Amino acid sequence: MGYIIYRRNTFLTGRLTLIRTKLCLGGARSEGWSQRAIIVLLPNPIETSNVDPMAIAPRAASRSFEASLRRLQDRIGYCFGDRSRIERALTHPSSTAEEHSDNERMEFLGDAVLNLCVGQALYDRYPKWNEGQLTQVKSAVVSTVSLARAGECLGLRDVSKLGKGLPPGEPLPPSVYANLFEAVCAAVYLDGGLDAARAFVLRTLGPELKAVAENGSEPNHKSALQQLAQRDEGVTPHYRMISASGPDHKKTFEIVAVIGSRRFPPGHGRSKKAAEQAAARRALEVLEAELALSDGANGSDNGEIGNGENGNGHHEALATAGRRRTK
Q1: Beta strand pairing status for 3-13 and 28-29?
Q2: Residue 75 located in a structural domain
Q3: Most distant CA pair in the chain: distance in Å?
């Protein structure tokens, strides 16, 4: 005759408990757990209606936050020893009334860390530049627009604590993204020191720094397109020369931007760099137009115009593409 050993993991289904079983026949355990299950009436049934949903919700929210925080650390490329630092960095002043619990002080420190890391990188990489050139490029790299784009690409909004004045359905102002990014820089610096902060800053802002340095303080369409393509498609754009016409001293280059298998309208310029910037600008214009149409369709379905949830982040990046505003 066989008997039953109950496994410990059970779950409630109404007034019954569904228990996976393991059969022991003739004193020997059978191989593996039985695919069958039995339903056992409890002597004192537990009503699931007695379980307070409000007690379950915070635990679920906590697990979701933990997962989001792990993903953010993967994107940052740094694992915090003291997690309270990154949590405070992501706490916007609008979300708390508690004194000294938001990220404002970390924004202050992060601004200084950013300027030091970017300034030293420029100083080391361009020894022939004068003070004016160094200042001009640094101002563009650490501008609100540049930091906002970096903060959006890291997905800081998804894991930040924001107040009611910054609802999920509305675009996040660039200044808020930039402040969050500065606070995260401070968190990395406080947790891991200057080397860790420098690695994070240059890994995140390195493409922007290089592109601005090559292109002066002009709008950096290539950087904007690269960040957008990497975030949304997981690929880096490349550029293909179609033609070069005219005499050597007055050549005009025609170049197209390519993302994956998609080719965008060509851009023209007197140099390859200028033509690539023009090609990136054309690609951004096409993507922006497509997103506007998509948002319009979503807005019609929702009774609103241009406020589709999926379009907000894209428009934030595209609206800031090609503009520079120093802090």
Answers
A1: unpaired
A2: yes
A3: 98
What are the catalytic residues?
111, 182
The residue from 193, 218, 243 where one domain ends is 218
In the numeric block, which tokens belong to residue 317? 């990046």
Q: End-to-end CA distance of the chain, in Å?
A: 81
Tens-digit pLDDT profile for residues 120-177: 999 999 999 999 889 888 988 998 888 988 998 888 888 788 777 766 667 778 888 8
Domain span at 112: 69-218
> Are residues 142 and 202 in contact, defined by beta-carbon separation less than 8 angstroms?
no
Let me know: does 97 contact 108? Beta carbons within 8 Å. Answer: no
Is 269:278 a contact under the CB 8 Å cutoff?
yes
In a domain, 325, yes or no: no
Q: Residue-wise over 6-27: b if at least 16 C-beta within 10 A, else e?
A: eeeeeeeeeeebebbeeeeeee
